[in-house]
Design brief:
Layout: E1 4-7, E2 10-13, E3 16-17, H1 18-25, E4 29-33, H2 34-45, E5 53-57, H3 64-71, E6 76-79, H4 82-90, E7 98-100, H5 107-116, E8 120-123, H6 126-138, E9 143-150, E10 172-173, H7 177-185, E11 190-196, H8 206-225, E12 232-234, H9 253-264, E13 270-273, H10 277-280, E14 284-295, E15 300-304, H11 313-317, E16 323-325, E17 334-339, E18 348-355, E19 363-366, E20 388-392, E21 395-400, H12 405-410
Parallel strand pairs: 4-20, 5-6, 5-13, 6-7, 7-8, 8-9, 9-10, 9-11, 11-12, 12-13, 15-17
Antiparallel strand pairs: 1-2, 2-3, 4-14, 14-15, 14-19, 16-19, 17-18, 20-21
Length: 420
């Protein structure tokens, strides 16, 4: 469920008229619904036992206002960089609710997280383990860790978002897990606390989760027999969301929670979950204005002012987002390829998209754009990426302003031999 609906023939975000907002803010812009963020968090967290740490995946949408909205509900954070760690802390998420994932943690980032006192490092390789031990000892601290184990389970999603097979860069190989845990247990700067797994993103079938979690449960039993005090089981994220109305609906969080309870219920361990897309995707849209309607030889093109620099998912992942008219849904009797102005053929949001008859100046909304949208944006073609707006009821606020083209140019610096 989301809180974007038509009222009086105009699409609204909660109680805010998006056509009015487009006049005030300019296009393109991202718009997020507080009510949807809050509802998605509550529905997800309610599917798990008391004491579960729901660590929102900051990489999905790291806007401070989004993070603050979730922090007030008790969310933790799953971070993958020093910058994300600083964002989570700035948003009021306590360090003791932050877990740090990622394959390339630097020594500086490790020190930053150790000094902050984060809850857990999800370690992904033996060289990382050595480096973390060195940094912890230098600070006179002990780093709480879970190893991310790679269960070699294929989640059956797009190749670019699959992380749980043996061919990917993520995690410790399943076969080496007990050996690596033994090595960690002998290190003075390391405290082994749990096991971590994450097999990918946008997963709409519960079977791969069940297979991976069963392997984790077996490993926990074996590690405890080896003498490790495994108190936490981090099962990552990855539960999919509906991107289009004609897609088969993904499992709801209650069904996901039931699978987890069945597999891990006897372990007597704290659960850690890392949802991102599930919380943010359908809480955000990208609003754009039609520049031209172009009649091609074989296609009719709707050229809009948002580009792949603003939302790269369709170009990068072949992702499909539903696109609707902002003013008056009307009868979707026309077909368009909806494209942006970026000088790339891949700058295409949808092909053969059914919409009402459109003209220059009309507004469209690209739905389910709240996750991996603005956070992945760039200034390609020297196009400042879209600003962000957060709505709550009838109130709205720009939570990241639009950068001017002049400000973008001023970021570059000329060397002394090119000045003057």
């Amino acid at each position: 469920m989301n809180h974007f609906e038509y009222r009086g023939g105009r699409l609204h975000a909660e109680d805010v008229d998006l056509a009015m907002l487009a006049e005030e803010v300019g296009t393109p812009f991202y718009c997020y619904s507080s009510a949807t963020l809050e509802r998605h968090y509550r529905v997800f967290s309610g599917a798990f036992p008391k004491g579960t740490l729901v660590a929102y995946s900051v990489k999905a949408n790291g806007n401070l206002a989004v993070l603050k909205t979730l922090a007030r509900l008790g969310a933790g954070a799953d971070v993958v960089s020093g910058g994300e760690l600083k964002k989570a802390l700035a948003a009021g998420i306590p360090a003791e609710r932050i877990v740090y994932s990622g394959v390339g943690k630097t020594a500086r980032e490790m020190r930053l997280a150790l000094e902050a006192g984060i809850y857990q490092f999800n370690v992904e390789s033996e060289p990382e383990l050595e480096a973390l031990n060195t940094e912890a000892l230098a600070l006179g601290l002990s780093a709480p860790i879970s190893f991310r184990v790679n269960p070699d389970v294929d989640a059956g999603t797009h190749a670019k978002i699959t992380t749980g097979t043996a061919e990917t860069k993520f995690g410790i190989p399943w076969q080496r897990a007990r050996t690596v845990y033994a090595r960690a247990g002998a290190m003075k700067g390391i405290e082994v606390v749990g096991v971590d797994v994450h097999i990918g993103s946008q997963i709409t079938d519960l079977q791969p989760f069940a297979a991976a979690f069963a392997r984790v449960a077996t490993l926990v039993t074996e590690l405890r027999a080896d003498g490790h005090a495994i108190a936490r089981v981090d099962l990552g994220g990855g539960l999919g969301v509906p991107y289009a109305r004609d897609n088969a609906p993904p499992p709801d969080p209650a069904a996901y929670g039931a699978v987890i309870a069945k597999v891990t219920g006897g372990l007597n361990a704290q659960l850690i979950l890392e949802p991102g897309r599930l919380i943010a995707a359908n809480a955000g849209i990208l609003v754009s204005r039609v520049i031209y309607v172009k009649e091609g030889e074989a296609k009719r093109f709707l050229i809009i002012d948002a580009g792949m620099n603003d939302l790269i998912r369709p170009a990068m992942y072949d992702a499909r987002h539903e696109i609707v008219a902002v003013e008056g849904p009307g009868s979707a009797g026309e077909r368009y390829d909806v494209v942006g102005p970026v000088c790339e053929t891949s700058d295409c949001f949808a092909r053969d998209c059914a919409l009402p008859a459109m003209k220059s100046g009309d507004l469209v909304a690209i739905l389910s754009a709240g996750a991996y949208g603005r956070v992945m944006a760039s200034a390609y073609n020297a196009r400042p990426p879209a600003p962000e707006v957060l709505v709550k009821g009838g109130h709205w606020s720009i939570v990241r302003p639009r950068m001017s083209e002049d400000a973008l140019v001023e970021l570059d610096r000329l060397p002394s031999w090119l000045e003057g």
